[in-house]
Write a structure and sequence with these properties.
Length: 574
């Protein structure tokens, strides 16, 4: 031991170690300051710590051989040891970079928290009647939607905020997951035509109450209360409240119509589309001046064909009519512009759809639904990279969104980034095991991976959720896996009554036939789409499944006929 300590002193190993630790500590402190100022991701600092730990080992080895007796030469064995150390360290860094994102929450949740950001958590129903839950949820959503229209304010979307409903979650964790600095929470107590709303704004980092208030009002003045709360939050967070009027100037509401409107919002959130349409239609019959109900009716009608066996030709005009009535009453309703954009995209009127979505983002630049729908439009017209940027911007506001995560996976798949697509899809399915869209998209991500066993499992789950025959749809996946079964599967798709819903959408039909190696059938289905516009899923045109026939003159003629790809004018992201 005495000899060892003597050799350590001789080579000044302790001094080297202390000097390295001091240097590393100072470097980390400096990087931490810079990272906070420039919003660097936390992964940079974690990688730096790993690199410094590896460097410490290397520094000690070098110090041992090049200390005070610097004449030593490094032998081949010693060089080998150094190489092994560096290889191990490099392997750890590589593994960290590859594994870390897949083992954390969705990437959008690891964002830097802006000071001007808020999540509106579901207000507690204090009415003593669980049947009034829709009313407190509706009031929450209206405040959230009003705040989402404020420029410069980041507002967590409904899907993510409502994920914490009924949970006694630490607000610091809520702030971390949703990427917000403040949380608005409260309660709603309704008795006849009287309503009491309490609200409080809390800093998620310190836990301090920043603001609180209690309001006792008539239901006819409910909009005024919501505006007062929203304006108070905007003032507290030092952003400009831009409603253009104060609560006293808002039109009194018909309590019966407003009640139906709030019921419709809850039904829409659960994607109970026919029931939501019925509630909104009743609301506008009672109060034809209710612009918000008209706008919600417009969007629900616009997306109905994606959730029910209803042809788009039967809903497009009705959706446009409702949107026009909403905008005639209030030109700054983002939902009405979004509904117009969806309909125009269904009709392949790409410039009109582009303009409608831009109008929505102009009046509500932070609205996650508007950003999400614009991302899907960009995806539909073949602008895959811009679409990915927009869906990631949407996920910053709605990090717990199952559809948002699934669409991100879908885009990565279309961009041939199979590893990232699979990783995103697995995270999304784990968080949203009951999501129909999530399982539908997962089918094709696994088909792209040639994991037909998992693709069949996902197809069975999706079919069960939507009410299709899981055995019939699973047979299609088995045909993709086994060329000997493919012809029978293709015939079944074209003729089986159990698969009528799948072949109704021409692009879906073409996609399945392409995966079954039926080139002629796939091209014929695409030509049907070009003639009749019989699809609501042009996004699927960019799937790699179509790559073997993408350069065929008939495929290119289809794209040309429907005006794809379409290049929107440049837009500055708010």
């Amino acid at each position: 031991m005495a000899e060892l300590f003597a050799r350590l002193r001789q080579r000044k190993l302790v001094q080297w170690a202390l000097a390295y630790v001091a240097f590393a500590f100072a470097l980390l402190q400096g990087v931490d300051i810079v990272a906070q100022r420039f919003a660097w991701p936390a992964s940079i600092e974690r990688l730096l710590i790993l690199a410094l730990a590896l460097g410490f080992c290397v520094a000690l080895v070098l110090a041992w051989y090049h200390g005070e007796r610097g004449a030593q030469k490094i032998s081949g064995i010693e060089l080998g040891i150094l190489a092994v150390l560096l290889a191990i360290g490099g392997g750890l860094l590589w593994r960290f970079e590859r594994v870390a994102p897949a083992t954390t929450a969705p990437e959008a949740t690891t964002q830097v928290i802006a000071s001007r950001s808020v999540a509106v958590l579901p207000f507690v129903n204090m009415s003593g009647d669980p049947r009034n839950e829709y009313f407190s949820d509706g009031v929450t959503e209206e405040i959230l939607n009003a705040l989402a229209q404020v420029p410069g304010l980041k507002v967590a979307a409904r899907t993510s905020a409502f994920a914490f409903k009924g949970k006694d979650e630490d607000l610091r964790e809520v702030g971390r997951v949703l990427g917000v600095a403040t949380v608005l929470e409260g309660s709603v107590q309704r008795a006849g035509d009287e309503v009491r709303i309490t609200a409080q704004l809390i800093d998620t980092r310190s836990g301090y109450h920043l603001w609180s208030e209690k309001y006792d009002r008539k239901l006819t003045n409910i909009f005024a209360v919501e505006d007062e709360i929203s304006a108070a939050i905007a003032r507290k967070l030092q952003v400009q409240w831009n409603r253009g009027h104060d609560g006293a100037q808002r039109r009194p509401v018909d309590s019966r119509a407003h009640d139906l409107y709030l019921r419709g919002l809850t039904l829409f959130a659960t994607r109970s589309m026919p029931a939501a349409i019925d509630a909104f239609e009743q609301a506008v019959r009672i109060d034809p001046q209710d612009a918000a109900a008209w706008a919600s009716l417009a969007e629900t009608r616009a997306i109905l064909p994606s959730y029910a066996l209803v042809p788009i030709s039967a809903t497009n005009q009705a959706a446009l009519d409702a949107a026009d009535k909403a905008l005639a009453l209030d030109a700054d309703l983002p939902l009405a512009h979004v509904a117009r954009g969806i309909v125009f995209a269904n009709q392949m009127r790409w410039p009109d759809a582009d303009a409608a979505f831009r109008d929505a983002l102009r009046v509500a630049p932070g609205d996650a639904e508007a950003i999400d729908q614009y991302a899907q439009f960009l995806y539909a017209v073949g602008q895959l990279r811009p679409a990915l940027a927009e869906i990631e911007r949407s996920l910053q506001r709605d990090p717990l969104s199952g559809p948002g995560g699934a669409i991100r996976a879908q885009l990565l798949f279309a961009l041939h980034d199979e590893h990232a697509a699979l990783s995103q899809m697995q995270r999304t399915l784990q968080a949203h095991p009951e999501g129909l869209l999530e399982h539908r998209i997962a089918v094709w991500v696994y088909v792209g991976q040639r994991d037909y066993v998992e693709a069949e499992r996902q197809m069975r789950i999706a079919s069960t959720l939507i009410g299709h025959d899981p055995d019939a749809t699973a047979a299609l996946i088995r045909g993709m896996a086994d060329p000997a079964l493919a012809p029978a599967a293709a015939r079944s798709l074209q003729t089986s009554p159990a698969l009528a819903a799948l072949r109704r959408d021409a692009i879906v039909r073409a996609l399945i036939l392409a995966a079954l190696r039926d080139r002629e059938g796939a091209l014929a289905a695409l030509e049907d789409f070009a003639r009749n516009g019989s699809s609501t899923t042009p996004q699927l045109l960019w799937y790699p499944i179509f790559d073997p026939i993408r350069q065929e003159p008939r495929f290119q003629a289809v794209l040309s006929k429907v005006g794809l790809p379409y290049a929107p004018a440049a837009r500055t992201t708010p």
